[in-house]
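Anyone able to model this chain together with EPU?
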Amino acid sequence: MEKLMITGGRPLQGTVSISGAKNSAIALIPAAILAESEVILDNLPLLSDVAVYSEILEELGATVTWEGSQMKIDPSSIKSIPMPNGPVKKLRASYYMMGAMLGRFKEAIIGLPGGCNFEPRPIDQHIKGFEALGATVTNEHGAIHLHAKELHGTKIYLDVSSVGATINIMLAAARAKGATIIENAAKEPEIIDVATLLNSMGAIIKGAGTETIRIEGVSELHGCRHSIIPDRIQAGTYMIAAAATRGNVLIDNVIPKHMEALTAKMQEMGIGIEEYDESIRVLGAPSYEHVDVKALIYPGFATDLQSPMTSLLTQAQGVSVLSDFVYSNRFKHVPELVRMGAKIRVEGRSAIIEGGRLNAAKVKAADLRAGAALVIAGLTVSEGVTEVTGVEYIDRGYDHLVSNLRLLGADVWRQTE
Ligand code: EPU
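re: yes, here you go
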């Protein structure tokens, strides 16, 4: 078993460069299935979820070459192979295989996704979309079976602005007959990234990033080259870590516009923020004001930064209230932070956090962002060693976390037991 060992208390100093976005990459890789020729993805993050996706495509017959931050996917030999088990079970985003395979082959058998199960994560809106496009969808022994004679464009109103459902419907509709309109679509930057790739492949998608997306189906898509947007959640995690350790860090290769909800909250706390074209400097201060935070769909405060933010708010004076309106119970980091001495209680969708000192402890990450929260908490504790297990979750979303933190002066290392 691997663990992260942290001796904190050192202000983070220096520059960290952010990799491409995980939540884009794991949609862009399956999107390549829709093309008839090679797709090249640049600025790819080095993550276990990306490795699993490359394995899935290879099992289908694609040729995948991955060197550093570039992946070349030749999907021309891909076959329609059922995938009820195997690597699809390892990650949440394998649900994109449904939209991509349905778009290309008009059929798919995909095992229900695994991944970070911090609470039930239904896919009813994805299925509603596929059915509206003309597919028959059944759940047989834990695998989703999709089949359509042909897919035809239609109007789909999402009951919730789901990132996954919006992307999945775009994937299937890109090769449907006629126009599909998604209303109440999610507006996250990763959706624009996927639409940009699909358009470079020859799709006709308008309105990505707004609540109405129009997809004019085409019969064939071709290869292209695409550079993935920076990971706003990784960037936010380093911004929070810099502030929590009262450091001074330049976070490079970010799109400051994507970070607005976080930068506004940090400024409200009294943290110094300097914005440049593609970077943000975070300047810690001796004391921070308490704030209330509401995690919402984009452009609101990201739910994926809710857990790391909890750790930062333990460093503020007074009582902060952090509510999550995307997921109702994404608080698996809280009992672990309490183990470290944090004064936090959960009431309904909210964590009520009273600022105070934390202690080193042995803690367990139950999901990816909970893991980031525990690492940040450990970085604030100068006495003793904080041990974080559940490293496999952290590796799903943080490219070079340990080496990046060490470059910023943190005393962090991996230990295998
Ligand atoms: N929802 C439904 N039905 C659906 C789909 C979603 O009720 O069919 C609900 C969910 O239960 C949730 C809300 O809608 O309450 C939003 O879920 P969404 O579908 O937007 O989430 P997702 O696509 O499953 C992606 C990211 C998550 C991130 C959320 C919200 C990927 C693979 N995952 O999940 O990222 O938290 O959007 O921004 O892109 C992470 O990176 O740690 C992570 C969990």
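The chain has a mean pLDDT of 96.
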